[in-house]
Design goal:
The protein has 2 domains: 30-123 and 253-324, D-Maltodextrin-Binding Protein, domain 2 (3-Layer(aba) Sandwich); 125-252, 3-Layer(aba) Sandwich (D-Maltodextrin-Binding Protein, domain 2). The chain has helices spanning 3-24, 43-56, 75-83, 97-104, 139-148, 163-175, 187-196, 206-214, 265-278, 282-290, 303-324, and strands at 31-36, 63-68, 90-94, 116-130, 154-157, 180-183, 201-205, 219-223, 252-259, 294-295. It is 43% helix and 18% strand. It is globular, with a radius of gyration of 22 Å. Strands 1, 2, 3, 4, 5, 6, 7, 8, 9 and 10 form a 10-stranded mixed sheet that branches. The protein contains 11 helices and 10 strands. This is Tripartite tricarboxylate transporter substrate binding protein BugD.
């Protein structure tokens, strides 16, 4: 057997092996981990767990687990995903924080544009909510109360860079008033104190507020989106902040799916194809709509469009954060 023939056989075998490896993803018995850079029970955690269920079928019944790696405004978990092996078995589910950390943190431990973008998942409205004992029963009354208590209103958020923090910044700017900001280490403790009356108001995602509003544990006053939210029905009579006179106020929180840089193109395609199937899953859509979220069904489910969208959000939120003068180290 000639040397050239042996080399040809070896090259052919390598190509076949590579092809088999690509086709085998996800390999039988291997677990896919979705890293969520927030605490269990929070809005992003709920989205990730719903998505994990919807992804199993298009990924050949793969075992998919959620790893909550919370802390430092989502940077700990996101950096963990950034450093993970680029093999498709460790992914990241995160929210708008992907677009705010470039301004909030000088060195978050990763670069937002050096992930493999897999597609946008959903968009979530924000709602201004208040403690149950608050005298105000509608937005007009709440606005009056805030005006009468300038400097005394306690505004909770889930920590620097959280959705509630960003919405709170825009709310204060639109109202032209400063509130006493009370940051927490996550959405759950912030909501607990709001229910208990230790803080006055918060602007948070409907994925976190819906069950509390329905259970009358907190009060809902206004929506952050340009159009009214009609699903779930608990929000259908609430005005938008734009309607109340804050023209142009439009904030929704989105979630996306990412893989470490260098993940093979074939694996990226497999994951993106699976995501597109999951986003059309009736049960997934039903769960998200029940929380007030809207499942994405436009071009942003494609990796290139997803990345382009996030870059535009980096610019948008960078201006808001700089204007507020709120930076981290």
């Amino acid at each position: 057997m000639t040397k050239l023939f042996k080399l040809t056989l070896a090259a052919g075998a390598a190509l076949l092996a590579a092809g088999a490896h690509a086709q085998a993803f996800p390999a039988s018995g291997k677990t896919i981990t979705l890293i969520v850079p927030f605490a269990a029970g929070g809005p992003t955690d709920k989205v990730a767990r719903d998505l994990a269920e919807a992804l199993r079928k298009p990924l050949n019944g793969a075992t998919i687990v959620v790893d909550n790696a919370a802390g430092a405004g989502s940077t700990i978990g996101t950096a963990k995903a950034f450093r993970a092996a680029p093999d498709g078995y460790t992914l990241l589910v995160t929210h708008i924080g992907m677009a705010t950390t470039p301004t909030l943190y000088r060195n978050p431990g990763y670069k937002y544009d050096e992930f493999e973008y897999l597609g946008l998942i959903n968009e979530v409205p924000m709602v201004v909510v208040g403690k149950p004992a608050l005298a105000a029963n509608n937005w007009q009354e709440l606005n009056t109360w805030i005006g009468q208590n300038k400097g005394k209103v306690n505004l909770a958020n889930a920590g620097l860079g959280s959705a509630s923090h960003l919405c709170g910044l825009m709310l204060q700017n639109a109202l032209k008033t400063e509130m006493t900001t009370v940051p927490y280490k996550g959405t759950a403790p912030a909501m607990t104190d709001l229910i208990g009356g230790q803080v006055d108001i918060m602007c948070d995602q409907t994925t976190n507020t819906t069950s509390q509003v329905e259970g009358k544990k907190i009060k809902a006053y206004a929506m952050s989106t340009a159009k009214r939210v009609t699903t779930p029905a608990i929000y259908k009579d609430l005005p938008t902040l734009d309607e109340t006179g804050m023209k142009g106020f439009n904030v929704s929180i989105w979630h996306g799916l990412y893989a470490p840089k260098g993940t093979p193109a074939a694996v990226v395609k497999t994951l993106n194809d699976a995501l597109k199937v999951a986003l059309k899953d009736p049960e997934f859509i039903k769960k998200e709509e029940g929380l007030g979220a809207v499942v994405v069904n436009d071009a942003r489910v494609n990796p290139a469009d997803h990345k382009k969208f996030v870059a535009s959000e980096v610019t948008k939120w960078g201006a808001v954060i700089k204007a507020a003068g709120q930076y981290a180290d």
